[in-house]
Amino acid sequence: MEKSAILSALAAEVEQGRLIFPTSANTAIRTRRMLEDPDCGIETVTKLVQADPLLSTKVVAVANSSVFNRSGKRITDVKSAITLIGFRTVRNLATVIVVQQLSGRHAKSEKVMQLWKHSAHVAALAQVIARRITHQDPDTALFAGMIHEISWFYLLAREDSYPGLVDDDVASSWSSDEDLEDGGELDCEIKIGTAILNALSVPQPVIEGIICMWEGYLAFPPTTLGDTLLFADQLAPVKSPFVLPSHQTGDDIEAQIDIMTDKSTLSEILQDSAEEVKSLTDALCG
User: Fold this and answer.
1) How is residue 134 annotated by DSSP?
2) Partner of 61 for a Cys bridge, out of 4, 33, 138, 283, CB 3.0 to 4.6 A?
3) Per-residue pLDDT tens digits for 21-71
4) Could you tell me if 156 and 108 are in contact, meaning their C-beta atoms sit under 8 angstroms apart?
5) What's the burial of 215, exposed, middle or buried (CB within 10 Å: 0-12/13-18/19+)?
6) Are residues 57 and 121 in the same domain?
7) Stated pTM of the model
8) Integer distance in angstroms from the first to the last C-alpha of the chain?
9) At 119, which CATH number?
10) Which of these ranges, 13-27, 120-134, 135-149, 220-234, has the smallest mean pLDDT?
11) Is 226 found in the same domain as 110?
12) How confident is the model at residue 2 (pLDDT cuts 50, 70, 90)?
């Protein structure tokens, strides 16, 4: 089945209100929803996180990253980790687990692993860019970066319904410049991704920022969450296995942003933040 036909079929499912998640993702969704209960105190949240090995591992790892753990004192238990990073970050990480689980039995495939590594790098870089350049909320940028590839995780999860979806012949078409000018395909991708984000109760400003990134319109000077994500995406050393429109892949990004930066060049900012980015990327990928 051709790329356009797959997207059209999936978009039609979305329009009919049918979002099909793997069992593991449904379990993660239930955990996330319980964490949204405003009456959840630290003890309840701790128990919920501890009941999910993947989430508890992620929470402790992020708490030990240099972004959150300025003291350098090693965190070894879930409760201390939650106290350090806060409930908001815990809920965001629960959403990240859902995204990871969307790919189902393909979770360990090369394409999914590359997609997740790319997401982690974008998230870590977005946090730095938000704090140092665009002056967006760094935690929001981090969260948006972690989930911005959600539609592709879902797409890969539907391979059982669309045999051959991840075969080389079909998968390679995602990396082709062919039909990039066809707005219909992008509209389908946005429709699918937006439906999933809404189903996971992702805040509307985050959804809007991710959509701006998908559309690929980068403003100068960069000020929005969408700009933040686009810059992070272009700078990420691990690229998405799926194609980006050509106007999102310029090689002169550093020169362009340097012109807009008064006191520090982008390269200096990234060099100063290199340890933070590596620490957070390692935590998210672990």
Assistant:
1) I
2) 283
3) 888 888 888 888 999 888 889 999 999 999 999 899 999 999 999 999 988
4) no
5) middle
6) no
7) 0.84
8) 35
9) 1.10.3210.10
10) 13-27
11) yes
12) low
